[in-house]
TrEMBL record:
NCBIfam families: homoserO_Ac_trn. It is an enzyme of class 2 (transferase). It comes from Jiulongibacter sediminis. SUPFAM superfamilies: alpha/beta-Hydrolases. GO terms for molecular function: homoserine O-acetyltransferase activity. Gene3D superfamilies: alpha/beta hydrolase (3.40.50.1820). It holds the Pfam family Abhydrolase_1. This is Homoserine O-acetyltransferase. GO terms for cellular component: cytoplasm. The keyword Cytoplasm applies. Homodimer. Keywords: Acyltransferase, Amino-acid biosynthesis, Cytoplasm, Methionine biosynthesis, Transferase. Pathway: Amino-acid biosynthesis; L-methionine biosynthesis via de novo pathway; O-acetyl-L-homoserine from L-homoserine: step 1/1.
Amino acid sequence: MLQYHDFTHRQPLKLENGEFLPEVTLAYSTYGKLNDDKSNVIWVCHAFTGNANPSDWWNGLIGENRHFNPEQYFVVCMNVPGSHYGSTNPLSVNPETGQPYFHTFPMLTIRDVVNCLEILRQHLEIDKIHTLMGGSLGGQQAVEWAVSNPGLHERLILFSTNAVHSPWGIAFNESQRMAIENDPSWQNNDAKAGMEGMKVARSIALLSYRNYQTYNRTQSRDEGQIDFFRANTYQNYQGEKIQRRFNAFSYWVLSKMFDSHDVGRERGGIEKALAGVKAKTLVIGITSDMLFPPQEQALIASCIPDAQYVEIDSDYGHDGFLIEFEEMTQAITSWEKQNA
């Protein structure tokens, strides 16, 4: 049975930029039962606006009758701090002021998130993780955790992610933040601040998540049409959809978190950092991913000892790691047989 939990770390959390959170609440889910020797843990790291229920957004991989079946495994997923779904975030009350953080919420890096993953792991008394997996922002967390604690994970599966966030990816994120900044309400200390700007930001993001071919196929125009195109409706719909489930403050914080990612920082570079990973590693790329191009996943695989790289041919772009479940399952199954 899927269960939701939260744990509050009552001590100050020092962040990579030198700031502190007075305390941090970590929302997380567990799915399945931990076996007696605690050897069946599957730890999942979620993507940008994802939540702590991977059987929701990765239901083709995780769940009953899926590859990672909770009848066999104990699946754990933590909502990253800064996110909208239960962990400490900009709408949370700062215990030092008695008021929501709003614009005073500190910057969080991927390494800060991994520190929180470690705090939660120790709280759960888990000493070994059978498989660590994540895609996109979740993959950034996973590879950072594998680098910082190389003896913890037996297996590592990375989807559509990178070792350092690219100038291309940072530019997309900055354009989204510019959209939020230009919403007149953004300066307000209010939970609804910046929501119209976030709608535009999500529209920008969708262009990077998909690609030219995807839009041609799914948002094609009718012959003779001069206005009110499917693509118009789709962009507005996606913006309205994120407005119903997220907040602009968290969107801002997590976009900055994306940009911070660099496993080579203060470790002598990417190659040296990844060379220390001890987990058996599978890296999966999507041929049409324009946000995290396949060469970024190939680079990770080339630097981690004995890692395997698999590329899935898909027109869905970056979102392919949330869609191409059959191909991903086949790749994982084949790799696991080789590493049995």
